[in-house]
Amino acid sequence: xxxxxxxxxxxxxxxALKYAVQRVSGGRAELVEGVIHDMPSGxxxxxxxxxxxxxxxxxxxxxxxxxxxxxxxxxGSLNWYVPDIAVVPGExxxxxxxxxxxxxxxxxxxxxxxxxxxxxxxxxxRYAEYGAPLYLLVDRLDKTVTLFSGPGQLGYTGVDGPHPFxxxxxxxAPFGLDLDTSGx
Length: 184
Prior knowledge:
With 184 residues, this protein is an alpha+beta fold. The chain is built from 4 helices and 13 strands.
């Protein structure tokens, strides 16, 4: 090796980390501010996701969208997220490895002890910065649901909540439906 030459010169760290996180064996992982995190998911977490998705399903179908937890790339950052719920147009999902937050209609995260602060702070900021129109935070620890809207570089301008579990949370257009949180 010559003076001034370092190993890995010319390697794009963003691309390398995103490549690695997609190939974690034994399950799904995401990249949050440059750190790879396993995606733990207990049955209670799955239950909350299922309750929310079942309420969205009829409207999602009518909008010719799909809901799932596919990969979201935040280009230009060391972030690669796997949201608990994302609603995306069907034509964008077909053939896509990952989408960007601004290609979604809604992103939802369900907190766990391991992810609560990331979901409440980091992801909320990043989803707004990357143009996700609606961010639904289901906070199992605080037993609240908050809907963020009006994304921008400085965060979301609209905040509806936090609503305690048991209250109805209205999702605006294109959904135009009320989510029942009593079963959470």
